[in-house]
Amino acid sequence: MSSNNIEIIGIGSYLPEKKVDNHHFNYENYGVSDEWLVKAGVKYRHVAEKNETIIDLAYNAAINAISNAKIDISDIDAIYLVSGTISPEQIIPAAVLDLQKKLGITESLAFQTLDTCCGFLNTLELATHSIMAGSVKCALVIGAEVFSKAFCKKSEVTFKVSMCMGDGAGALILKASKDEGFISSYLKSSTKFSGGLKVCYTDHKDGGENGGLIVDFNIPENVKSSIDPEEALGRIIDFTKNAIPNAIKGVYEKTGFSHDNIDHFILHQPNRMFIESWKKLAMIPPEKHEDTLIENGNMATASIPVTLDIFYKEGKIKKGETLLFASVGEGATWGAMIWKWNID
């Protein structure tokens, strides 16, 4: 199969220095049991300080990626920022322009997407095809989250979702190349479960620190109107369990690949239940998958690039190996991408 001649030339991540464990949330007071936490698989997560913004996190991840790529900041002519949360005090113009200014890039394409967990793959796809079309030469793609600033205690379910979230940012730099890099992708969306996790404004007394911005969880109206709420939640869980195996199957069908062609699976990191079900249903060899959930929690759009950077820094990912990224998010959106790794 021929290459599309676009490769990842740099990678970087940033996690806030402040790190808290589960007891930080006094979870016992909200009906959360130790047994549930074991099933969730999150023990620690990084949280941004009050004066630390999502742009601060994105900037540090970007600088680390630029250093790793050994390029000048001026070489970047496109910035793609995706997140499930964003500084609520600024909606327009897009906060990515603040990142562009902080990086010292006078002129570039600056593109910002508000999306959830699969948003990083969607944005990576956009950057890849922009380079493929010749409109962009060197792209910086960042997933960044500050979910701690939208923490909510509204209900037991919402509390559980909120306390599993972690802050962080991960960045990749893409460039046209003579070497094989991007191989293929399979990305889908459906309105069947258009609900679930949301970040929204509310006047609820348990709203987040910033103007009522909260993480909320809602069962889609088209689902809960016809069946019992518990059954509705079960259907969403079943859909999510099957989404990543279906995405992997989809990208394999496009490429003719199988698990034998993949050296590492970098999966989204929502909770232990989903990760283990994905590995089982997709029959992913255990030696080809590791995760960072217990230390970092669910970082949504930052999950894949941060996890990838951690493995890379630990020396577990070698030049010439083939990687498969896969994620699922609210909306619902799901997908998988295959890349050849070309960084030493």
Structural write-up:
The protein is an alpha/beta fold and 344 residues long. The chain has a domain at 6-179: Peroxisomal Thiolase, Chain A, domain 1, CATH 3.40.47. Helix content is 32%, strand content 24%. The protein has 10 helices and 13 strands. The strands form 4 sheets. It has a 5-stranded mixed beta sheet, sandwiched between helices. Strands 8-13-12-11 form a 4-stranded mixed beta sheet, sandwiched between helices. Helix 2 crosses helix 3 (96-103) and helix 7 (229-255) packs across helix 8. The longest helix has 27 residues, at 229-255. The protein is globular, with a radius of gyration of 19 Å.
Biggest sheet layout: 5 strands, mixed
Q: What is the fold-level CATH name, i.e. the topology of the domain at 6-179?
A: Peroxisomal Thiolase, Chain A, domain 1
Q: Mean pLDDT across all residues, rounded? A: 87
Helix content: 25-40%
The largest sheet has its strands arranged as: 1-7-6-4-5
Decide which structural class fits the backbone: alpha/beta
Q: Per CATH, which architecture of the domain at 6-179? A: 3-Layer(aba) Sandwich
Provide the CATH superfamily of the domain at 6-179: Thiolase/Chalcone synthase
Instruction: Give the CA-CA distance, first to last residue.
Output: 24 Å
Low-confidence stretches: 207-211
The SSE string, one letter per element, is: EEHEHEHEHEHEEEEHHEHHHEE
Number of helices: 10
Fold blueprint:
Layout: E1 6-14, E2 19-21, H1 34-40, E3 44-46, H2 54-69, E4 78-83, H3 96-103, E5 109-114, H4 119-133, E6 138-145, H5 156-163, E7 168-176, E8 182-189, E9 196-201, E10 213-218, H6 221-224, H7 229-255, E11 264-267, H8 272-281, H9 293-296, H10 303-313, E12 322-329, E13 333-340
Parallel strand pairs: 4-5, 4-6, 11-12
Antiparallel strand pairs: 1-7, 2-3, 6-7, 8-13, 9-10, 12-13
Helix pairs in contact: 2-3, 7-8
